[in-house]
Recover the amino acids of this structure.
Protein backbone atom coordinates (compact mmCIF):
# COMPACT_ATOMS: atom_id res chain seq x y z
CA UNK A 1 0.00 0.00 0.00
CA UNK A 2 1.48 3.30 -1.08
CA UNK A 3 2.36 5.61 1.76
CA UNK A 4 -0.04 8.59 1.94
CA UNK A 5 2.94 10.95 1.48
CA UNK A 6 3.56 9.29 -1.88
CA UNK A 7 -0.12 9.69 -2.79
CA UNK A 8 0.14 13.42 -2.09
CA UNK A 9 3.31 13.69 -4.18
CA UNK A 10 1.49 11.86 -6.99
CA UNK A 11 -1.32 14.42 -6.95
CA UNK A 12 1.17 17.22 -7.55
CA UNK A 13 2.95 15.24 -10.25
CA UNK A 14 -0.38 14.57 -12.01
CA UNK A 15 -0.76 18.31 -12.32
CA UNK A 16 2.87 18.79 -13.31
CA UNK A 17 2.39 16.42 -16.26
CA UNK A 18 0.27 19.17 -17.80
CA UNK A 19 2.74 21.99 -17.43
CA UNK A 20 6.18 20.43 -17.59
CA UNK A 21 6.91 21.67 -21.08
CA UNK A 22 6.36 25.33 -20.25
CA UNK A 23 8.12 24.93 -16.94
CA UNK A 24 11.13 23.20 -18.47
CA UNK A 25 11.41 25.89 -21.10
CA UNK A 26 11.46 28.68 -18.55
CA UNK A 27 14.02 26.88 -16.41
CA UNK A 28 16.20 26.79 -19.51
CA UNK A 29 15.60 30.31 -20.76
CA UNK A 30 15.88 32.23 -17.50
CA UNK A 31 19.44 31.26 -16.55
CA UNK A 32 20.61 31.78 -20.11
CA UNK A 33 19.22 35.31 -20.06
CA UNK A 34 20.89 35.98 -16.73
CA UNK A 35 24.24 34.68 -17.79
CA UNK A 36 24.14 36.43 -21.13
CA UNK A 37 23.14 39.82 -19.76
CA UNK A 38 24.89 40.01 -16.42
CA UNK A 39 27.60 37.39 -16.80
CA UNK A 40 28.85 38.55 -20.18
CA UNK A 41 27.61 42.16 -20.11
CA UNK A 42 28.65 43.15 -16.59
CA UNK A 43 31.47 40.61 -16.67
CA UNK A 44 33.03 42.60 -19.53
CA UNK A 45 33.59 45.50 -17.12
CA UNK A 46 34.36 43.50 -14.00
CA UNK A 47 36.84 41.04 -15.38
CA UNK A 48 37.75 38.59 -12.65
CA UNK A 49 36.40 37.95 -9.17
CA UNK A 50 38.30 35.74 -6.74
CA UNK A 51 40.66 34.67 -9.50
CA UNK A 52 37.99 33.40 -11.93
CA UNK A 53 36.19 35.14 -14.81
CA UNK A 54 33.06 36.93 -13.59
CA UNK A 55 30.67 34.80 -15.61
CA UNK A 56 32.15 31.67 -14.06
CA UNK A 57 31.93 33.29 -10.64
CA UNK A 58 28.20 34.06 -10.86
CA UNK A 59 27.10 30.71 -12.33
CA UNK A 60 26.68 29.00 -8.92
CA UNK A 61 25.03 32.15 -7.56
CA UNK A 62 22.48 32.26 -10.38
CA UNK A 63 21.91 28.53 -9.96
CA UNK A 64 21.23 28.84 -6.25
CA UNK A 65 19.08 31.89 -6.77
CA UNK A 66 17.04 30.04 -9.42
CA UNK A 67 16.40 27.27 -6.90
CA UNK A 68 15.59 29.87 -4.26
CA UNK A 69 13.12 31.79 -6.41
CA UNK A 70 11.45 28.64 -7.58
CA UNK A 71 11.03 27.39 -4.01
CA UNK A 72 9.56 30.73 -2.92
CA UNK A 73 7.36 31.17 -5.98
CA UNK A 74 5.88 27.68 -5.96
CA UNK A 75 5.07 27.78 -2.26
CA UNK A 76 3.07 30.99 -2.14
CA UNK A 77 -0.22 31.17 -4.06
CA UNK A 78 -0.31 27.43 -4.68
CA UNK A 79 -0.28 26.71 -0.95
CA UNK A 80 -2.50 29.62 0.00
CA UNK A 81 -5.07 28.54 -2.60
CA UNK A 82 -5.22 25.00 -1.24
CA UNK A 83 -6.46 26.44 2.04
CA UNK A 84 -8.38 29.48 0.94
CA UNK A 85 -9.64 29.07 -2.59
CA UNK A 86 -10.34 25.49 -3.54
CA UNK A 87 -9.96 23.93 -0.06
CA UNK A 88 -7.95 21.08 -1.52
CA UNK A 89 -6.09 20.79 1.77
CA UNK A 90 -9.37 20.17 3.57
CA UNK A 91 -10.31 17.50 1.02
CA UNK A 92 -6.99 15.73 1.56
CA UNK A 93 -7.31 15.97 5.31
CA UNK A 94 -10.67 14.16 5.16
CA UNK A 95 -8.77 11.00 4.21
CA UNK A 96 -6.02 8.85 5.67
CA UNK A 97 -3.57 11.66 4.77
CA UNK A 98 -2.08 13.40 7.80
CA UNK A 99 -0.71 16.92 8.07
CA UNK A 100 2.85 15.53 7.80
CA UNK A 101 1.93 13.56 4.67
CA UNK A 102 0.62 16.75 3.10
CA UNK A 103 3.74 18.75 3.98
CA UNK A 104 6.08 15.91 3.09
CA UNK A 105 4.46 15.21 -0.28
CA UNK A 106 4.44 18.89 -1.13
CA UNK A 107 8.09 19.49 -0.23
CA UNK A 108 9.17 16.39 -2.16
CA UNK A 109 7.37 17.84 -5.16
CA UNK A 110 9.16 21.19 -4.75
CA UNK A 111 12.54 19.45 -4.49
CA UNK A 112 11.68 17.47 -7.60
CA UNK A 113 10.84 20.67 -9.49
CA UNK A 114 14.00 22.41 -8.30
CA UNK A 115 16.15 19.41 -9.24
CA UNK A 116 14.82 19.45 -12.79
CA UNK A 117 15.58 23.16 -13.08
CA UNK A 118 19.06 22.69 -11.59
CA UNK A 119 19.98 19.80 -13.86
CA UNK A 120 18.79 21.68 -16.94
CA UNK A 121 20.75 24.70 -15.77
CA UNK A 122 23.93 22.69 -15.24
CA UNK A 123 23.61 21.12 -18.69
CA UNK A 124 23.20 24.55 -20.29
CA UNK A 125 26.08 26.27 -18.51
CA UNK A 126 28.21 23.14 -18.78
CA UNK A 127 27.98 23.58 -22.52
CA UNK A 128 29.61 27.03 -22.04
CA UNK A 129 32.52 25.33 -20.31
CA UNK A 130 32.28 27.26 -17.05
CA UNK A 131 32.09 24.29 -14.67
CA UNK A 132 35.64 23.38 -13.69
CA UNK A 133 35.48 21.28 -10.53
CA UNK A 134 34.43 17.62 -10.20
CA UNK A 135 32.67 18.67 -6.98
CA UNK A 136 29.98 20.07 -9.29
CA UNK A 137 28.14 16.74 -8.93
CA UNK A 138 27.21 17.91 -5.42
CA UNK A 139 25.33 21.00 -6.61
CA UNK A 140 21.98 19.15 -6.97
CA UNK A 141 22.34 18.14 -3.33
CA UNK A 142 23.04 21.73 -2.30
CA UNK A 143 20.03 22.85 -4.34
CA UNK A 144 17.79 20.28 -2.64
CA UNK A 145 18.89 21.44 0.79
CA UNK A 146 18.41 25.08 -0.16
CA UNK A 147 14.97 24.29 -1.61
CA UNK A 148 13.87 22.66 1.63
CA UNK A 149 15.30 25.49 3.73
CA UNK A 150 13.23 27.98 1.75
CA UNK A 151 10.12 26.00 0.79
CA UNK A 152 9.34 24.79 4.32
CA UNK A 153 9.07 28.24 5.96
CA UNK A 154 7.41 29.84 2.92
CA UNK A 155 4.83 27.02 2.85
CA UNK A 156 4.20 27.65 6.54
CA UNK A 157 3.86 31.39 5.89
CA UNK A 158 1.37 30.78 3.07
CA UNK A 159 -0.70 28.50 5.28
CA UNK A 160 -0.70 31.09 8.06
CA UNK A 161 -1.70 34.34 6.36
CA UNK A 162 -5.33 35.34 5.98
CA UNK A 163 -4.96 37.41 2.85
CA UNK A 164 -2.81 36.99 -0.24
CA UNK A 165 -1.68 40.64 -0.11
CA UNK A 166 0.88 39.54 2.50
CA UNK A 167 2.81 37.96 -0.36
CA UNK A 168 3.79 41.46 -1.50
CA UNK A 169 5.56 41.89 1.85
CA UNK A 170 7.29 38.55 1.43
CA UNK A 171 8.52 39.44 -2.05
CA UNK A 172 9.58 42.99 -1.16
CA UNK A 173 11.13 42.57 2.26
CA UNK A 174 12.38 39.00 2.24
CA UNK A 175 12.89 37.71 -1.25
CA UNK A 176 14.31 40.80 -2.93
CA UNK A 177 16.88 41.72 -0.24
CA UNK A 178 17.81 38.06 0.03
CA UNK A 179 18.56 37.92 -3.65
CA UNK A 180 20.47 41.21 -3.73
CA UNK A 181 22.61 40.69 -0.63
CA UNK A 182 23.31 36.99 -0.76
CA UNK A 183 26.55 36.93 -2.72
CA UNK A 184 24.88 36.08 -6.01
CA UNK A 185 26.24 38.98 -8.05
CA UNK A 186 29.12 40.24 -5.85
CA UNK A 187 30.99 38.89 -2.83
CA UNK A 188 29.35 39.65 0.48
CA UNK A 189 32.69 41.07 1.71
CA UNK A 190 31.97 44.07 -0.53
CA UNK A 191 29.11 45.01 1.80
CA UNK A 192 29.72 47.27 4.79
CA UNK A 193 30.20 45.14 7.91
CA UNK A 194 26.94 46.49 9.26
CA UNK A 195 24.89 45.07 6.36
CA UNK A 196 26.65 41.71 6.10
CA UNK A 197 24.42 40.00 8.69
CA UNK A 198 21.56 40.39 6.20
CA UNK A 199 23.39 37.83 4.10
CA UNK A 200 24.18 35.58 7.05
CA UNK A 201 20.50 35.18 7.95
CA UNK A 202 19.50 34.49 4.34
CA UNK A 203 19.34 30.80 3.45
CA UNK A 204 20.19 31.85 -0.09
CA UNK A 205 23.68 33.05 0.93
CA UNK A 206 24.51 29.72 2.50
CA UNK A 207 23.20 27.97 -0.60
CA UNK A 208 25.20 30.26 -2.89
CA UNK A 209 28.44 29.69 -1.00
CA UNK A 210 27.98 25.93 -0.94
CA UNK A 211 27.09 25.89 -4.64
CA UNK A 212 30.13 28.05 -5.42
CA UNK A 213 32.35 25.73 -3.42
CA UNK A 214 30.97 22.82 -5.44
CA UNK A 215 31.36 24.39 -8.89
CA UNK A 216 34.80 25.94 -8.21
CA UNK A 217 36.29 23.43 -5.78
CA UNK A 218 37.40 26.29 -3.47
CA UNK A 219 36.56 26.29 0.24
CA UNK A 220 33.52 28.40 1.25
CA UNK A 221 33.88 31.36 3.71
CA UNK A 222 32.44 29.35 6.62
CA UNK A 223 33.07 25.64 7.18
CA UNK A 224 30.82 23.49 4.99
CA UNK A 225 29.10 22.05 8.05
CA UNK A 226 28.20 25.57 9.26
CA UNK A 227 26.59 26.56 5.96
CA UNK A 228 24.79 23.22 5.71
CA UNK A 229 23.79 23.47 9.37
CA UNK A 230 22.15 26.85 8.79
CA UNK A 231 20.15 25.40 5.89
CA UNK A 232 19.12 22.39 7.95
CA UNK A 233 18.05 24.73 10.75
CA UNK A 234 15.89 26.74 8.32
CA UNK A 235 14.33 23.55 6.98
CA UNK A 236 13.67 22.14 10.46
CA UNK A 237 12.23 25.41 11.76
CA UNK A 238 10.10 25.73 8.64
CA UNK A 239 8.80 22.18 9.00
CA UNK A 240 7.84 22.77 12.61
CA UNK A 241 6.06 26.00 11.67
CA UNK A 242 4.31 24.35 8.69
CA UNK A 243 3.07 21.51 10.89
CA UNK A 244 1.67 24.01 13.33
CA UNK A 245 0.11 26.20 10.62
CA UNK A 246 -1.49 23.31 8.72
CA UNK A 247 -2.96 21.84 11.88
CA UNK A 248 -4.32 25.21 12.92
CA UNK A 249 -6.02 25.65 9.55
CA UNK A 250 -7.44 22.16 9.28
CA UNK A 251 -8.36 21.24 12.81
CA UNK A 252 -10.06 23.08 15.63
CA UNK B 1 -17.03 -4.93 12.71
CA UNK B 2 -18.57 -6.13 15.93
CA UNK B 3 -22.31 -6.56 15.29
CA UNK B 4 -24.29 -4.05 17.27
CA UNK B 5 -21.56 -1.62 18.32
CA UNK B 6 -22.74 1.86 17.31
CA UNK B 7 -20.63 3.45 14.57
CA UNK B 8 -20.96 6.80 16.27
CA UNK B 9 -21.43 7.18 19.99
CA UNK B 10 -21.51 10.55 21.75
CA UNK B 11 -22.19 11.28 25.41
CA UNK B 12 -22.43 14.83 26.70
CA UNK B 13 -20.55 16.03 23.61
CA UNK B 14 -19.62 19.72 23.77
CA UNK B 15 -17.91 22.08 21.33
CA UNK B 16 -16.94 25.58 22.42
CA UNK B 17 -15.36 28.36 20.42
CA UNK B 18 -14.14 30.77 23.08
CA UNK B 19 -17.26 31.76 25.02
CA UNK B 20 -19.60 30.54 22.32
CA UNK B 21 -21.07 27.08 22.87
CA UNK B 22 -21.80 25.57 19.46
CA UNK B 23 -22.71 22.09 20.69
CA UNK B 24 -24.05 21.90 24.22
CA UNK B 25 -23.91 18.36 25.56
CA UNK B 26 -25.54 15.98 23.08
CA UNK B 27 -25.94 12.20 23.18
CA UNK B 28 -26.07 10.24 19.91
CA UNK B 29 -25.88 6.62 18.80
CA UNK B 30 -25.77 5.74 15.12
CA UNK B 31 -26.28 2.04 14.37
CA UNK B 32 -24.76 0.27 11.35
CA UNK B 33 -26.96 0.51 8.26
CA UNK B 34 -28.94 3.42 9.60
CA UNK B 35 -29.64 6.73 7.85
CA UNK B 36 -29.36 9.28 10.60
CA UNK B 37 -30.17 12.97 10.21
CA UNK B 38 -29.39 16.20 12.00
CA UNK B 39 -32.15 18.68 11.38
CA UNK B 40 -32.02 22.28 12.46
CA UNK B 41 -31.66 25.90 11.43
CA UNK B 42 -28.35 27.57 10.62
CA UNK B 43 -26.26 27.86 13.76
CA UNK B 44 -27.99 24.97 15.55
CA UNK B 45 -24.69 23.09 15.90
CA UNK B 46 -25.23 20.51 13.13
CA UNK B 47 -22.07 21.26 11.19
CA UNK B 48 -19.95 21.53 14.34
CA UNK B 49 -21.16 18.07 15.32
CA UNK B 50 -20.41 16.72 11.85
CA UNK B 51 -16.93 18.21 11.98
CA UNK B 52 -16.29 16.43 15.26
CA UNK B 53 -17.52 13.14 13.80
CA UNK B 54 -15.24 13.62 10.80
CA UNK B 55 -12.29 14.09 13.20
CA UNK B 56 -11.36 17.59 12.03
CA UNK B 57 -12.72 19.28 15.13
CA UNK B 58 -11.74 18.21 18.62
CA UNK B 59 -14.48 17.86 21.26
CA UNK B 60 -14.23 20.46 24.06
CA UNK B 61 -15.84 18.07 26.54
CA UNK B 62 -17.79 14.83 26.70
CA UNK B 63 -17.14 11.53 25.02
CA UNK B 64 -17.04 10.73 21.31
CA UNK B 65 -16.23 7.38 19.70
CA UNK B 66 -16.27 6.58 16.00
CA UNK B 67 -16.06 2.84 15.21
CA UNK B 68 -15.24 2.58 18.90
CA UNK B 69 -12.08 4.69 18.36
CA UNK B 70 -11.08 8.00 19.90
CA UNK B 71 -11.01 10.74 17.23
CA UNK B 72 -8.41 12.77 19.14
CA UNK B 73 -5.81 10.01 19.00
CA UNK B 74 -6.85 7.95 15.99
CA UNK B 75 -7.86 10.68 13.50
CA UNK B 76 -6.20 9.33 10.33
CA UNK B 77 -7.27 5.75 11.11
CA UNK B 78 -10.92 6.79 11.52
CA UNK B 79 -10.85 9.10 8.50
CA UNK B 80 -9.58 6.20 6.42
CA UNK B 81 -12.94 4.49 6.98
CA UNK B 82 -15.12 7.56 6.51
CA UNK B 83 -16.58 9.13 3.39
CA UNK B 84 -17.05 12.86 3.78
CA UNK B 85 -19.18 15.07 1.57
CA UNK B 86 -18.60 18.60 2.90
CA UNK B 87 -21.02 21.48 2.72
CA UNK B 88 -18.77 23.36 0.29
CA UNK B 89 -17.48 21.39 -2.68
CA UNK B 90 -13.72 21.01 -2.45
CA UNK B 91 -13.06 19.13 -5.64
CA UNK B 92 -9.66 19.58 -7.24
CA UNK B 93 -10.24 22.17 -9.99
CA UNK B 94 -6.91 21.45 -11.68
CA UNK B 95 -7.70 17.80 -12.26
CA UNK B 96 -10.21 16.07 -14.50
CA UNK B 97 -13.35 14.40 -13.18
CA UNK B 98 -11.73 10.99 -13.36
CA UNK B 99 -8.45 12.18 -11.85
CA UNK B 100 -10.39 13.62 -8.93
CA UNK B 101 -11.57 10.10 -8.15
CA UNK B 102 -8.31 8.25 -8.82
CA UNK B 103 -6.21 10.76 -6.89
CA UNK B 104 -8.57 10.56 -3.95
CA UNK B 105 -8.52 6.78 -4.07
CA UNK B 106 -4.73 6.90 -3.77
CA UNK B 107 -5.03 8.99 -0.60
CA UNK B 108 -6.84 6.01 0.90
CA UNK B 109 -4.14 3.61 -0.17
CA UNK B 110 -5.81 1.90 -3.14
CA UNK B 111 -3.41 0.59 -5.78
CA UNK B 112 -3.38 2.38 -9.14
CA UNK B 113 -5.34 -0.46 -10.79
CA UNK B 114 -7.89 -0.50 -7.96
CA UNK B 115 -8.19 3.29 -8.16
CA UNK B 116 -8.90 3.17 -11.89
CA UNK B 117 -11.50 0.42 -11.54
CA UNK B 118 -13.18 2.18 -8.62
CA UNK B 119 -13.26 5.46 -10.55
CA UNK B 120 -15.07 3.80 -13.49
CA UNK B 121 -17.64 2.30 -11.14
CA UNK B 122 -18.25 5.60 -9.39
CA UNK B 123 -18.43 7.61 -12.62
CA UNK B 124 -21.22 5.25 -13.57
CA UNK B 125 -22.88 5.68 -10.17
CA UNK B 126 -22.67 9.48 -10.38
CA UNK B 127 -23.81 9.43 -14.04
CA UNK B 128 -20.67 11.26 -15.06
CA UNK B 129 -19.03 8.65 -17.31
CA UNK B 130 -19.34 10.88 -20.35
CA UNK B 131 -17.67 13.75 -18.48
CA UNK B 132 -14.69 11.71 -17.22
CA UNK B 133 -12.14 13.82 -19.06
CA UNK B 134 -13.73 17.17 -18.34
CA UNK B 135 -12.31 19.57 -15.81
CA UNK B 136 -14.42 20.22 -12.73
CA UNK B 137 -15.16 23.89 -13.35
CA UNK B 138 -17.59 23.58 -16.28
CA UNK B 139 -19.76 21.03 -14.42
CA UNK B 140 -23.16 22.09 -13.10
CA UNK B 141 -23.82 22.36 -9.37
CA UNK B 142 -25.64 19.04 -9.34
CA UNK B 143 -22.84 17.27 -11.22
CA UNK B 144 -20.22 18.63 -8.83
CA UNK B 145 -22.26 17.44 -5.87
CA UNK B 146 -22.62 13.98 -7.42
CA UNK B 147 -18.90 13.88 -8.03
CA UNK B 148 -18.23 14.92 -4.42
CA UNK B 149 -20.50 12.14 -3.18
CA UNK B 150 -18.90 9.66 -5.56
CA UNK B 151 -15.49 10.76 -4.27
CA UNK B 152 -16.67 10.17 -0.71
CA UNK B 153 -17.48 6.56 -1.69
CA UNK B 154 -14.06 5.84 -3.16
CA UNK B 155 -12.74 3.94 -0.11
CA UNK B 156 -15.98 1.96 0.36
CA UNK B 157 -16.50 3.73 3.68
CA UNK B 158 -18.23 2.20 6.68
CA UNK B 159 -19.87 5.55 7.36
CA UNK B 160 -20.74 8.38 4.96
CA UNK B 161 -21.10 11.92 6.30
CA UNK B 162 -23.12 14.35 4.19
CA UNK B 163 -23.25 17.98 5.31
CA UNK B 164 -26.25 19.61 3.63
CA UNK B 165 -25.92 17.44 0.52
CA UNK B 166 -28.51 19.21 -1.61
CA UNK B 167 -28.30 22.83 -0.47
CA UNK B 168 -28.25 25.17 -3.44
CA UNK B 169 -29.38 22.64 -6.02
CA UNK B 170 -32.39 22.95 -8.28
CA UNK B 171 -35.30 20.52 -7.66
CA UNK B 172 -34.36 18.19 -10.48
CA UNK B 173 -30.77 17.87 -9.30
CA UNK B 174 -31.98 17.32 -5.74
CA UNK B 175 -34.26 14.47 -6.75
CA UNK B 176 -31.51 12.77 -8.74
CA UNK B 177 -29.20 13.09 -5.75
CA UNK B 178 -31.80 11.71 -3.37
CA UNK B 179 -32.28 8.77 -5.64
CA UNK B 180 -28.51 8.09 -5.60
CA UNK B 181 -28.36 8.42 -1.81
CA UNK B 182 -31.33 6.10 -1.50
CA UNK B 183 -29.41 3.48 -3.49
CA UNK B 184 -26.51 3.77 -1.07
CA UNK B 185 -28.92 3.28 1.78
CA UNK B 186 -30.34 0.17 0.14
CA UNK B 187 -26.84 -1.26 -0.17
CA UNK B 188 -26.59 -0.97 3.61
CA UNK B 189 -24.25 2.05 3.70
CA UNK B 190 -24.62 3.98 6.95
CA UNK B 191 -25.44 7.62 6.26
CA UNK B 192 -25.24 10.56 8.63
CA UNK B 193 -26.51 13.78 7.14
CA UNK B 194 -27.40 17.29 8.12
CA UNK B 195 -30.13 19.19 6.42
CA UNK B 196 -32.46 22.07 6.88
CA UNK B 197 -34.85 20.70 4.32
CA UNK B 198 -37.81 18.93 5.92
CA UNK B 199 -38.60 16.93 2.80
CA UNK B 200 -35.01 15.73 2.60
CA UNK B 201 -35.10 14.49 6.18
CA UNK B 202 -38.43 12.75 5.56
CA UNK B 203 -37.15 11.16 2.35
CA UNK B 204 -33.81 9.87 3.55
CA UNK B 205 -33.66 9.49 7.31
CA UNK B 206 -34.66 6.45 9.34
CA UNK B 207 -34.06 8.43 12.46
CA UNK B 208 -33.24 12.02 13.16
CA UNK B 209 -32.56 14.53 15.86
CA UNK B 210 -33.78 18.11 15.80
CA UNK B 211 -31.09 20.49 17.03
CA UNK B 212 -31.58 24.03 18.24
CA UNK B 213 -29.07 26.23 20.03
CA UNK B 214 -26.54 23.42 20.29
CA UNK B 215 -28.93 20.98 21.97
CA UNK B 216 -31.05 18.09 20.81
CA UNK B 217 -34.68 19.11 21.26
CA UNK B 218 -36.30 15.98 19.81
CA UNK B 219 -35.34 12.59 18.50
CA UNK B 220 -37.08 9.82 16.62
CA UNK B 221 -38.21 8.64 13.19
CA UNK B 222 -39.76 11.35 10.99
CA UNK B 223 -43.17 9.74 11.51
CA UNK B 224 -42.86 9.39 15.27
CA UNK B 225 -41.67 12.99 15.61
CA UNK B 226 -44.71 14.19 13.70
CA UNK B 227 -46.96 12.08 15.87
CA UNK B 228 -45.35 13.25 19.07
CA UNK B 229 -44.97 16.94 18.32
CA UNK B 230 -47.72 17.79 15.88
CA UNK B 231 -51.33 16.89 15.15
CA UNK B 232 -52.14 14.55 12.23
CA UNK B 233 -53.42 17.40 10.05
CA UNK B 234 -52.77 21.08 9.63
CA UNK B 235 -55.11 23.73 8.26
CA UNK B 236 -53.42 26.73 6.68
CA UNK B 237 -55.73 29.72 6.84
CA UNK B 238 -55.05 33.03 5.08
CA UNK B 239 -56.89 36.30 5.46
CA UNK B 240 -55.72 38.35 2.52
CA UNK B 241 -53.66 41.31 3.67
CA UNK B 242 -55.38 41.73 7.03
CA UNK B 243 -53.69 41.77 10.46
CA UNK B 244 -53.41 38.10 11.39
CA UNK B 245 -53.03 38.69 15.14
CA UNK B 246 -56.67 39.86 15.22
CA UNK B 247 -57.83 36.36 14.23
CA UNK B 248 -56.09 34.48 17.01
CA UNK B 249 -58.87 35.04 19.54
CA UNK B 250 -61.74 34.18 17.14
CA UNK B 251 -59.91 30.95 16.16
CA UNK B 252 -59.17 29.91 19.73
CA UNK B 253 -60.35 26.44 20.68
CA UNK B 254 -60.34 25.08 17.13
CA UNK B 255 -57.95 22.14 16.89
CA UNK B 256 -55.15 21.56 19.40
CA UNK B 257 -53.06 24.63 18.80
CA UNK B 258 -52.73 27.71 16.57
CA UNK B 259 -49.49 29.22 15.16
CA UNK B 260 -49.35 32.66 13.55
CA UNK B 261 -46.84 32.97 10.71
CA UNK B 262 -46.16 36.20 8.81
CA UNK B 263 -48.47 35.28 5.93
CA UNK B 264 -50.82 32.63 7.37
CA UNK B 265 -52.22 30.98 10.46
CA UNK B 266 -51.67 27.28 11.10
CA UNK B 267 -54.36 25.36 12.92
CA UNK B 268 -53.20 21.96 14.19
CA UNK B 269 -56.09 19.47 14.31
CA UNK B 270 -56.84 15.76 14.38
CA UNK B 271 -59.48 16.28 11.71
CA UNK B 272 -58.69 19.09 9.29
CA UNK B 273 -62.08 19.18 7.56
CA UNK B 274 -63.90 19.41 10.89
CA UNK B 275 -61.66 22.34 11.83
CA UNK B 276 -62.46 24.10 8.56
CA UNK B 277 -66.22 23.65 9.18
CA UNK B 278 -65.78 25.16 12.61
CA UNK B 279 -63.93 28.17 11.13
CA UNK B 280 -66.84 28.80 8.77
CA UNK B 281 -69.43 28.15 11.49
CA UNK B 282 -67.84 30.98 13.53
CA UNK B 283 -68.48 33.32 10.62
CA UNK B 284 -64.86 33.81 9.66
CA UNK B 285 -64.18 34.29 5.97
CA UNK B 286 -60.58 33.33 5.10
CA UNK B 287 -59.23 34.30 1.67
CA UNK B 288 -57.90 30.75 1.33
CA UNK B 289 -57.94 27.48 3.26
CA UNK B 290 -55.66 24.46 2.81
CA UNK B 291 -55.87 21.17 4.66
CA UNK B 292 -52.72 19.04 4.58
CA UNK B 293 -50.91 16.29 6.38
CA UNK B 294 -48.63 17.38 9.17
CA UNK B 295 -44.93 17.50 8.22
CA UNK B 296 -41.56 17.75 9.91
CA UNK B 297 -41.71 21.47 9.29
CA UNK B 298 -44.61 21.69 11.73
CA UNK B 299 -42.62 19.69 14.26
CA UNK B 300 -39.78 22.06 13.77
CA UNK B 301 -41.99 25.14 14.21
CA UNK B 302 -43.44 23.69 17.34
CA UNK B 303 -40.10 22.73 18.87
CA UNK B 304 -38.06 25.79 18.03
CA UNK B 305 -40.82 28.35 17.86
CA UNK B 306 -39.73 29.85 14.59
CA UNK B 307 -39.88 29.37 10.88
CA UNK B 308 -36.91 27.69 9.34
CA UNK B 309 -34.56 30.15 7.73
CA UNK B 310 -32.74 28.82 4.69
Amino acid sequence: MAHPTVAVLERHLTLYKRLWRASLFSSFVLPVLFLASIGLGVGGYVGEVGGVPYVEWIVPGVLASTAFQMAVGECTYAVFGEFRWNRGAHAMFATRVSVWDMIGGWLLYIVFRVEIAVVVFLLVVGAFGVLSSPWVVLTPLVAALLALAVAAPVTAFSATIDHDSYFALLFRFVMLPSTLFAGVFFPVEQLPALVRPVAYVSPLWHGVELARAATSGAAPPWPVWAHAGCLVAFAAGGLWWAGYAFRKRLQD
Amino acid sequence: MSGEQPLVRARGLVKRFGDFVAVDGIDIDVAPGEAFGFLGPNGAGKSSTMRMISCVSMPSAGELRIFGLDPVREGPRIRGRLGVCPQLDNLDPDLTVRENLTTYARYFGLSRAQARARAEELLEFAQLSDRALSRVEPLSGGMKRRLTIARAMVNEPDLVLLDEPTTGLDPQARHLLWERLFRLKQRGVTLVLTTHYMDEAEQLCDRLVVMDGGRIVAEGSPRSLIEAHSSPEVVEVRFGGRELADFVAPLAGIGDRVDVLPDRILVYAKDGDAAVSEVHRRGLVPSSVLVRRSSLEDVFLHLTGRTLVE
Observations:
- Chain B has two domains: 8-221, 231-294.
- Chain B touches chain A at residues 17, 51, 54, 56-58, 75-77, 79-80, 82, 84, 86, 88, 90-95, 99, 103-104, 106-109, 111, 155 (CB under 8 Å).
